[in-house]
């Protein structure tokens, strides 16, 4: 199978990229700047915005909802992912708020815990419990919410003398 050469026109290249997946304005600009001079891109970006192919707000909302629903990411992880797409912080805040209006953070956390429990070997030890909690923090959930869910699960009770406080897992609710 032959690979087609890249179009020499920045608009064609941008349209080809947008046909494959959505981009934020800054992300598409950065990608196009690798092949074309920045002076040519201002007009192309303006045209794509006018046509409705580029809209940071729509992109952020759909991407945030997708991350929350499909990957069970918590709000902090969704924020990080949107920030990596070079979006403005006000757009990110609105998108995260809107995404978690339709998806319950508690439900996502419960789903993530259920998935982790299936792969957790018994008996539950302090290191295994710490690993579970750290993986949930990386998924973007708050430590105090994680601890509430873990404490409500009898199958996650560590052996005698292995309290959560001893494991160093008491959450203070700060963003991590």
What is the helix tally? 9
User: How confident overall, as mean pLDDT?
Assistant: 86
**Which percent range describes the beta-strand content?**
under 5%
Summarize the biggest pleated sheet.
none
Q: Give the N-to-C terminal Cα separation.
A: 47 Å
Global morphology: elongated
Number of β-strand runs: 0
Order of helices and strands: HHHHHHHHH
Unreliable stretches (pLDDT < 50, length at least 5) are 160-168, 172-176
Radius of gyration: 21 Å
Overall SS class = mainly alpha
Account of the protein in words:
The protein has 176 residues and is an all-alpha fold. It folds into 3 domains: 10-51, no CATH class; 56-102; 105-156. The protein is built from 9 helices and no strands. It has helices at 10-20, 25-33, 38-51, 56-71, 75-84, 89-102, 105-119, 126-138, 143-151. Helix 2 (25-33) packs antiparallel against helix 3 (38-51), helix 4 (56-71) packs across helix 5 and helix 4 crosses helix 6 (89-102). The termini are far apart.
